Amino acid sequence: MDHKLPDISQDFAAWYQEIVYAAQLADQSPVRGSIVIMPYGYAIWELIRDRLDERIKATGHQNAAFPLLIPESYLKREAEHVEGFAPEVAVVTHAGGKELEEALIVRPTSEVIIHSMFARWIRSWRDLPLKINQWANVVRWEMRPRPFVRTTEFLWQEGHTAHATKEEALEEVLTMLNEYVDLARNYLAIPVVAGIKAESEKFPGAERTYTFEGLMQDGKALQMGTSHLLSQSFAHSFEMKYQDQNGNVAYPWLTSWGATTRLVGAVVMVHGDNKGLVLPPRVAPIQVVIVPIVRKGQDNSAVIDAVAKIADRLKKHGIRVHVDDQENLTPGAKFYHWEMRGVPVRLEIGPRDVANNCVVAVDRLGLGKESLGIDRIEDAVTHLLNRVQDTLLARATERRDSKWYKAAKLADFGPKLDEQPGFYQTGWCNSPACEEKIKEFKATTRCIIDTKEFSQCFACDKPSVHDVLIAKAY
Amino acid sequence: MDHKLPDISQDFAAWYQEIVYAAQLADQSPVRGSIVIMPYGYAIWELIRDRLDERIKATGHQNAAFPLLIPESYLKREAEHVEGFAPEVAVVTHAGGKELEEALIVRPTSEVIIHSMFARWIRSWRDLPLKINQWANVVRWEMRPRPFVRTTEFLWQEGHTAHATKEEALEEVLTMLNEYVDLARNYLAIPVVAGIKAESEKFPGAERTYTFEGLMQDGKALQMGTSHLLSQSFAHSFEMKYQDQNGNVAYPWLTSWGATTRLVGAVVMVHGDNKGLVLPPRVAPIQVVIVPIVRKGQDNSAVIDAVAKIADRLKKHGIRVHVDDQENLTPGAKFYHWEMRGVPVRLEIGPRDVANNCVVAVDRLGLGKESLGIDRIEDAVTHLLNRVQDTLLARATERRDSKWYKAAKLADFGPKLDEQPGFYQTGWCNSPACEEKIKEFKATTRCIIDTKEFSQCFACDKPSVHDVLIAKAY
């Protein structure tokens, strides 16, 4: 398994494809555009999912499960929504040995099926707010697949809520956006930018879409998740009427918000290096790998005992530990193996270490080789893991900031987008015609941010309405 | 929401349909044969799932995710398997706006896609055993849907493993069967019978299928999950070759095992009563509901404070508590509401209770109304919850045993199956011809058990090979 990775600074795309498979995060599948998420990749997703699920529940949402297959006519009820999704759906036309009277689509997202249920459940103002979340798989036919980042099938959570007022709905949209931003920062060690999508980039059927965007090491932006204030047309299309406190007929205000297995791809693309993955400790399935340094034909029992005891103590302390005691591999081969898999901390324990009541600790970032006393090993390892986590966030923030450019005119920065990719902050008059001009450089508006450092639009002579970030994106 | 439930002993089927919706475990969906699992039902599933996931991981399996959509040709590679599943699959023929060259089936189970990956992953004896689990949704077109018990789409886990020897594979099959039996007993409070399926009832493509069967209150059996030793034909069909320790080409031995959202239905059908659900505390989303007894226009602050403190203390003790402080409902309406939802323990706290430093505890089984001192409330409530859990298992065991009949000849017990449904233990020569005769009574063999109390077959004059349980089933 001696993979020579492409150089990350020379060919980032090739590096990414290679490391995803080499580190066994995923494997190619026989199904077009779909991947198999292998145990190591799935374990990262489980850690992200569990933290996100806690936040979703702590903010008052309840999980539920809605059907995978949706009658085609439901998708058509909201005009913008069907226009956005119809081209990418997979359609079931036959089932149970017969042709179906009405085709069923495999859900690309669940607004329409969930809204049809909301219409049954919301009868009175007492039924609001209604705050539901679903963990599910969805299918969107994908022409340019890339593992985790863009796959025909992906796993996600989709929150769907209904509220009595627009203000309350907007508060919900922002609350969940903030939960995502915090999760990205504090667990994935990714400093994201949050903002509002331009009209052209909105979710089909939304009144306003908030996004949080990460900057990958190649200077390309990645939309890491979104939170939508939906238009009221969904509520009208599904006749979601209720009686308000004054006895009048009213329609609720709806939101939806989601994050996907793409987050695994973001972790890989933000932190990896030429040795392979670099995992932030908080989402690392293995936080500490212990490699016993033993010699064939000698009495290694003292080392083996010490390793078992230390592993046990660290596990009891809530640290995810793996002991690599394979006999057919050299320590060097093991170091290489776990470095490629991004394990944050390696402990090496040989006879001399045991005699000195210490272990050798090596972190994945090369902060320095340390000797740690066994007596307080839990504290020392926890400290080191925190240091790795903090360093990763600081490093990612520095990298992002170094690729965050400010420029007044597209004519100036447009040509740079290729050689010097990154976030380009500029002013915008908010017109689609000006936005259209970015296409020439194969870039897009990523989000409108709440600064106003530019007085004029990047493309025309009109005043700028707000700053916008422009970038090439995945 | 004043639901008058059908009498459980008069019309069990109607009672079941009604309580599932009345207690808001599920709702009907616009998709044929599919349900919406509502938050309360989903929370029960989450508790079952989390306990099962712990057991699956503790026995050395790793979670992964495989594609939902499977090329049709893959299903056809194993002859028995396709024969079993082809009639019930949903087929995607169009996607991304075009007709597909090869149709994709929505997975009814994932043997074929997972085995195709196993063939890539297993190269050497060092790659064995390979022990994978997947939490997923599957679709099997269903003609007679019943919520949770039989739905077109359901949620489940499916374990898939590969081993070097048949003995090791069989050990795996039995290990996981035992995990299921323990889970049913210790969490769901359901005393199941484990045994081997007759040839006619085997999983399509298995060499041997183990099952665990519960007996519902109406005397019908429910297959609650299965564990299969697969035939070697899967390994051959997918060219799952590897090099064994002697350097020879070998094929691994495969297993698969699964349990589904049907378990939620089993809990409802085994424990419910005329007041509604009765949930075993270990799978109850709300273990304790606290109802403050307050009066309008009075100073209720002492009660409200005491309720908040007790709820907080119980939560810190790991107990799932809900405080019903709705102002628009009487205590009586709240009692009714939470009884129907099967909450195991209710605490009532009024001004006199606070003055006496105690609360009134009422359990869902009617074991008796008790006054509990507030000082040691955590211990008292834990004790009561354990008592409810134990009583439920004892009661379910007694009910099952009272409906477990022994009879030598089909001519005797066949006619009784309608009026006196239950498990009928008898002897069997193992011939399909004799098994066929049970059909007349709309019953089936449920499983072969490892006793041999009968010397002759229930249908012919030949000697019995083993005892078998016969029942009407869901």
Describe the structure in brief:
The structure is a homodimer of 474-residue chains. By secondary structure, chain A is α+β, with helices and mostly antiparallel strands.
Question: Care to describe what's here?
Answer:
The structure is a homodimer of 474-residue chains. By secondary structure, chain A is α+β, with helices and mostly antiparallel strands. Chain A has three domains: 12-271, BirA Bifunctional Protein, domain 2, CATH 3.30.930.10; 286-384, Anticodon-binding domain (Rossmann fold, 3-Layer(aba) Sandwich); 406-471, Translation Initiation Factor IF3. Chain A contains 15 helices and 23 strands. Chain A has helices at residues 12-22, 39-58, 72-75, 79-85, 111-121, 166-186, 233-237, 262-271, 301-316, 331-340, 351-355, 377-402, 410-413, 416-419, 432-436, and strands spanning 26-28, 35-37, 62-63, 69-71, 90-95, 98-106, 130-139, 153-163, 193-196, 206-215, 221-230, 242-243, 249-250, 253-260, 288-292, 321-323, 345-349, 358-363, 370-373, 404-406, 423-428, 444-448, 466-471. In chain A, a hairpin with a 6-residue loop joins strand 18 (358-363) and strand 19 (370-373). In chain A, helix 2 packs across helix 6 (166-186). The model of chain A has no long low-confidence stretch (mean pLDDT 96). At the A-B interface, strand 2, helix 2, strand 3, strand 4 and strand 5 of A face strand 2, helix 2, strand 3, strand 4 and strand 5 of B. Strand 5 of chain A pairs antiparallel with strand 5 (90-95) of chain B, so a sheet runs across the interface.
Architecture per CATH nomenclature, i.e. the level-2 architecture of the largest domain in chain A: 2-Layer Sandwich
Beta content of chain A: 25-35%
Oligomer state of the chains in this structure: homodimer
The main β sheet of chain A shows up as: 7 strands, mixed
> Strand order of the main beta sheet of chain A, please?
3-7-8-14-11-10-9
Tally of contiguous helical segments of chain A: 15
Chains forming the largest contact:
A-B, 55 and 55 residues
CATH class call of the largest domain in chain A? Alpha Beta
Q: What would you call the structural class of chain A?
A: alpha+beta
Shape of chain A: globular
